[in-house]
Design brief:
It is a single chain. By secondary structure, the chain is α/β, with parallel strands linked by helices. Helices cover 41% and strands 15% of the residues. The protein has 2 domains: 160 residues, Alpha-Beta Complex (Aspartate Aminotransferase, domain 1); 242 residues, Type I PLP-dependent aspartate aminotransferase-like (Major domain) (Aspartate Aminotransferase, domain 2). An 8-stranded mixed sheet has the order 2-9-8-7-6-3-4-5. The chain has a 4-stranded antiparallel sheet with strand order 10-11-14-13. Helix 3 crosses helix 10. The longest helix has 26 residues. Bound molecules: pyridoxal-5'-phosphate (PLP).
Length: 413
């Protein structure tokens, strides 16, 4: 049976894009992974987590193994409410609701599922998190890229796009997906003034904002103000959070907070139920650990790693190569003039260092029916993403040196 007969048009449209994860480089053994957006191994509290599981099972016996009933899983919800309140985000249970999800990604998928289809459009930052692009492509081809600068999303460009679409009677976007704080892949943060202006624009043109806050807790100096905390209308912003970058991505614990009708709809489509055991284990860990101290260690460690990466780049890179200076998060975005970073990658891998080419962080061209589209778009050709989160300072030094040498070699410097 061929795909045409097997799948309905919506699925056929989605299957024409490159396979999920096509951007992930095959890293040879021994190569240094400046590509990996993973936490540092030493910051995953495995010993404390084992103790929490012991406490959980001693106290609750078989309860967390059932569909529901664990006090600690309930505690996780209360912890999330307290955490959100500390960020200025109220969850009143009536107008604004909370849904615990299997990581931020499940939240994004459920949002797309209830708000998008092939007749709808979504705005994204360009560049943006490639897995969010993969999710949106499953539902619509209308992914509208809005450029960024060092202050985050360019609101002048956004306004132009919106005005032009309105004037030409094109479908208006249902929502904007944004990572306003320590963005993946650029490390940029949307300025406070732009946050307020963005909310005004969203009201004026009547679109929702999906705020992905995966890195919001990893600030090096000042805690950022969440867009959701500025949402005076209360139903303009859906805030998506996660423990992946601060506790461990394998736990798959995240949350979505937003207008009750949207969260209700997401709950209808969330058919994997609660993940009671892991939610209870995380709830137990958070109750018994000194989480603020752990977060402080996380921030100091990544700040030092980031400083180190910026220092190494300045020491090793050719003078015309430039990069961003993030105030938090995991990533540095590097501009390599005159180099196609997709073509550079095999050379870098051979030299023993991996990164993610900029190409993959832009919406893929819309595939023609029956054809397999190439990944990415040309906009990111001279850019690459480096992650400082997962490698030791020694590995980082070696990786940056190898990358600088590979750049010089392909350019014939
Ligand atoms: C911006 C952004 N959102 C979400 C995620 C994934 O989060 P989770 O593991 O909670 O699904 C990532 C991971 O790289 C990310 O960079």
């Amino acid at each position: 049976m061929n795909k045409r007969e097997l799948f309905p048009p919506s699925v056929r449209a989605a299957l024409q894009y490159p396979a999920p994860g096509a951007w992930m480089p095959e890293v040879p053994p021994g190569a240094i992974r400046l590509s990996a957006g993973y936490p540092d191994t030493s910051l995953i509290p495995t010993a404390e987590f084992v103790r929490s599981i012991q406490v959980l099972v001693q106290e609750e016996r078989d309860l967390p193994f059932h569909y529901l009933g664990s006090r600690y899983a309930t505690n996780l919800r209360q912890w999330a409410r307290n955490h959100l309140a500390s960020r200025g985000i109220g969850v009143d249970g009536a107008q604004t609701q909370l849904l615990i999800t299997a990581g931020a990604i499940q939240g994004l998928d459920l949002i797309a599922r209830v708000l998008l289809d092939s007749t709808r459009a979504v705005l994204v930052e360009a560049p943006t998190y490639m897995e969010a692009l993969e999710i949106f492509q499953n539902y619509t081809d209308e992914i509208i890229a809005v450029p960024m600068d060092a202050n985050g999303l360019r609101l002048d460009a956004l306004e132009q796009i919106l005005a032009a679409r309105l004037a030409t009677h094109q479908v208006m976007p249902t929502f904007l997906y944004t990572i306003p704080t320590f963005q993946n892949p650029t490390g940029y943060t949307l300025s406070d003034a732009r946050r307020r202006r963005l909310l005004h624009l969203a009201k004026r043109y009547d679109f929702l904002i999906v705020e992905d806050d995966a890195y919001g807790e990893i600030f090096f100096q000042h805690p950022p103000v969440a867009l959701k905390a500025l949402d005076e209308e209360k139903d303009r912003v859906i805030h998506v959070g996660s423990l992946s970058k601060v506790l461990g991505p394998g736990l798959r614990v995240g949350w979505s907070v937003g207008p009750a009708p949207i969260i209700d709809a997401m709950s209808v489509f969330k058919k994997d139920l609660d993940h009671t055991f892991v939610e209870a284990a995380v709830g137990c860990y958070l109750e018994h650990s000194d989480w603020p101290a752990q977060l402080a260690t996380i921030r100091t460690t990544y700040r030092a790693r980031c400083d180190e990466m910026l220092h190494l780049l300045a020491k090793s890179m050719p003078p015309d190569v430039t990069w961003t200076t993030p105030q938090g998060g995991y990533f540095v975005w590097v501009h390599v003039p005159g180099v196609d970073t997709l073509a550079l990658l095999p050379h870098a891998l051979q030299a023993g260092v991996a990164y993610i080419p900029g190409y993959y962080f832009y919406p893929a061209p819309i595939p023609a029916e029956g054809a397999v589209a190439p990944a990415g778009a040309c906009a990111g050709t001279e850019y690459l993403r480096l992650s400082f989160s997962h490698v030791s300072p020694t590995e980082m030094a070696c990786g940056i040196e190898r990358l600088a040498a590979a750049i010089r070699a392909v350019r014939g410097d």
